[in-house]
Amino acid sequence: MASDSLNWFRFSSPATFYPLAGKMIPWFGWSAALLAAIGVYVGLFVAPTDFQQGEAYRIIFIHVPAAWMSMFLYVVMACWSAVALGFNTRLSAMMAQAIAPTGAVMTFIALWTGAFWGRATWATYWAWNARMTSELILLFLYLGVIALRHAIDDPRRADRACGVLTLVGVVNIPIIYFSVHWWNSLHQGATVSLTKAPKMAAIMLTGMLIMSFAAWFYAIAVSLARARTIMIDRERGTSWVSAVAGAAR
Amino acid sequence: MIEFLAMNGYGFYIWSAYGVTAIVLMLELSALRSRRRAVLEEARLTVPEDALDATGAAQ
Amino acid sequence: MAAATLPSPTTGSVWPAVQWAVRRDLKLAFRSRAELGVQLLFYVIVVSLFPLSTSPERNLLATLGPGVLWVAALLSSLLSLPRLFAGDHADGTLEQIALSPYPLEALVSGKILAHWLTTGLPVALLAPLLGLQYAMDGESLAVLTAALLVGTPVLSLLGAIGAALTLGLRASGSLLALLILPLYVPVLIFGAGAVDAVRAGLGATANLSLLGAGLLIALVGAPFAAAAAVRIALD
After folding, report:
1. Domain ranges within chain B, ordered by starting residue
2. pLDDT attached to residue A119
3. Cβ–Cβ below 8 Å for B44 and A249
4. How distant is the alpha carbon of residue A106 from its chain centre?
5. A233: closest CA among B40, B44, B51, B34?
């Protein structure tokens, strides 16, 4: 039926996606807060002291989810950029634009917490090994996309230019992911793999997974909220935006 | 409580890590909130398109 | 202004377009020989500054040498990239090129090749001479030159993407550096790493192979990305 086949694209315009996103944000936001509370409780109180690293390992409950998110968000941003370039849609480009700052924040948190974990455990804040270097490169890639966005006045040219830049930089993600296998150095070897049994106690793994979901839902909520702000900014002057702006007083 | 904060000597590292994370996330949320307010204010000052006639003049 | 016009496509090959672009850009570059000379001189001066600022102790210099020579090569590349598209963009030639019957990717490839011939290749050939200032032995110098010969084309290829993305923007030079340097870092790591590996007795094969793989990927991908970026800038 015609209405069924059109349904899929019903939310592909900013005017219809705006209210949908508005309904989604509280769900993801509060879930993130709840999961984070549980995860931090598990990480700081429930999980036992590590045999080798003492209490310092508790930083992984933030470091690992943040690092995973930093890579995952870049891939998501690249997907939205690919859709925006391929289908020339505004909303996909706005989603890519919305994700970049949150991705940069996650990368910064991963680097900061990683530095303190490194100092506590291996007595060094920083080492130029493959994973830490490529995570730092990832931060610069995010900042570069954000800088390019600000440098271009025309929003549509900015959408396409940032899309190309994002896709060129996506090569870095597999490098970060596999760098731990390719170079044996200071960074802790990957302890969580899909096939092999994890080498850490189950409760630690649970804590990390809870925090990962918390980070993921937080990122979704914040990205949707930023996307709504971007929509209002870029669609200024249209009747739906004026209605929303008037109602939000 | 003191033992908990001290974290067996690792307190500085753990709380620096958790603390800065919390601060950065709160900064992100407040930056988002103020950006939203600014954008909504701009939108209110912009004349909506259906209030303009064919030549672009306000009705 | 532009040289002779593009030959019209008769066979299915894009090679005439590449040749035309290379020849034209080389001709234009040689008309401003002084500019090329200045960029090369910049490389020489930067490389020569470091031994003056640090201790002349031979071991320290030999350790620093590969990194300094590579970083200077990166900086020289960044200096010369804006002229890749900016000149043609300013006088409207770039739009003519984009409208030609040949694929833009082929013409862009030609421009990148000309850029490398006037920037990366001289840097790679000068490096062994400059490396002597850093007390580097023959084997290190040979590996350094090989690494630069493989790596500098990658710098031109990736740099072209950045130059196209930042065409006509304010502060395009610094923005170009911010966008491109993160992509340059792996080239720097493996390029300098090759020489470090040889000094440590491990052999440079791994690093050089990774550089080579990077070059192959860049050869295939960069012209498409750069051409897309040029079209975006021209719209």
Report:
1. 2-46
2. 85
3. yes
4. 6
5. B40
Mutate: best of A18, A25, A55, A64, partner B, most B CBs <10 A: A55
Query: Domain tally for chain A?
Result: 1
- Compute the distance between CA of residue C131 and CA of residue C77 in angstroms, rounded to an integer: 19
Q: Which residues form the domain of A93?
A: 40-48+56-234
Which chain A residue's Cα is nearest to C170? A151
> Which chain C residues are within 8 Å of A167, Cβ to Cβ?
225
pLDDT per residue as tens digits for the range A114-163: 998 888 887 777 777 777 888 899 999 999 999 999 999 999 999 999 99
- Distance in angstroms (rounded) separating the CA atoms of residues C34 and A101: 43
Dist. CA A134–CA A131, nearest whole Å: 5
What pLDDT, on a 0 to 100 scale, did the predictor assign at position A194?
Answer: 43
Residue A72 lies in a domain: yes
Q: What is the pLDDT of residues C21-69, one digit of tens each?
A: 999 999 999 998 888 888 899 999 999 888 888 777 888 888 889 999 9
The ipTM (two decimal places) reads: 0.90
Tokens of C174: 């610094």
Do A239 and B42 make contact, defined as CB atoms within 8 angstroms? no
Q: CA-to-CA distance for C25 and C9, rounded, in angstroms?
A: 20
Q: Residue C42: which residues within 8 A CB-CB, separation 6 or more?
A: C75, C76, C79
**Pair of tokens at residue C30:** 């040689």
